[in-house]
Amino acid sequence: MTKPTLRRLMAALSLGLAAVAVTTVAHATHSWGGYHWARTTPQFTLKLGNNMTTADWRAHLAQTSSDWNSGNSAVLTAIVAGTSNKRCSMVAGTTQVCNGTYGNNGWLGLASINITGGTHITQGSAKMNDTYFNTSTYNNPNERKHVVCQEVAHTFGLDHQSTDGSSQNSCMDYFSNTGANATSTLSTKPNQHDFDELNLIYAHLDSTTTVAMIAAQVAAFSQGPAAAVRDISDDPQSWGQLVRQSPNGRSSHYERENGDGSRNVTHVYWTLEVAERCVSCDHRFQR
Fold first, then answer.
1. Which CATH topology does 30-285 take?
2. Does the first or last residue of the chain, that is N or C, have fewer Cβ atoms within 10 Å of its Cβ?
3. For residue range 229-242, what is the model confidence (pLDDT) as tens digits?
4. Is the entire prediction scored with pTM above 0.85?
């Protein structure tokens, strides 16, 4: 084999490997643990309980619902009257969405879901912390849109496309619409890869529905205590054990086993400041 021919073969091989790498990135999964709402139909509508207290947050939630409904996805959303409170207690069969001054606890957004049967979601909550969103750093519409879009989608069973701070132009990344990027509309809504991933997560049908699973839980445990034990309070200790954290410290995943056999899993989106202070710390214990 001549040297020019060998060089051409090596170049072709390099291009092929590069193409494989690009394809791998483009089709990387961002399912959150395979968690999903049980349903027996190809498409279902998740009720979003509107507990937003201000006109701007209500408008951002309406935009989030519209954006997630704009793709050809197995998951649709419908905004309904909220039945929760500032604490954002979960309500069976829904995702309750709330804003409030939750305190200087380090987090911007928090999404929790209750899991039964290993992977099936029975209820969820998504919180936005106005203690930070009322400050000059985070108080802009693009950052608010980014966070509410992401926290709601976690309760579908979606994880992040990226946590390194780069923009994938998806609200499921950790691009920060703050500072010099405050006027940027990048990463404020889902992209096609998010819809593709939802269709992968919900590609199969279940033999039962979330509603039926909830009925079984209530039958096994009295409704009051069962509902209480499956909820997440404002106390970070209620999140359970730290399971993983992003390399830059902005994202943490917690899990807690409940007395009724279910499990709570929680995604926490930390502020820039708390993550920079100690990247590898469990931020719940930072002062």
1. Collagenase (Catalytic Domain) (3.40.390)
2. C
3. 567 887 898 999 99
4. yes
